[in-house]
Amino acid sequence: MVVRYYGGVNLGVPGLIQSYGNATRLALEASSIQETKIRKKAIFRFPFGEEGNAYHLVYKLNAKVSALKHEPEPVLYLEYDADKTEELNEWLARYPKINVSEE
Description:
By secondary structure, the protein is α+β, with helices and mostly antiparallel strands. It contains three helices and four strands, in the order H-E-H-E-E-H-E. About 40% of the residues lie in helices and about 25% in strands. A four-stranded antiparallel sheet has the order 2-3-1-4, with helices on one face.
């Protein structure tokens, strides 16, 4: 944040541009860029016998499993990178017994 206090000196337009420019440059030099991937939450429901395929999908998506429940069939709660949604849909066409919904 840049705050301008008037101290009796008239900087004029060039002086203000230089002052604000220096403040901006110093702020940018002190900051850092942090990349963050957008994550999506999903629920995988599948019958017994499809666990291998479900975990194969988890591996291929580099997903993080947050919970595994049996309700009465296995249910995986997970997070994956949003940019892998198309890849997920392609894999689901190969594994029609795995049902995916967003959490």
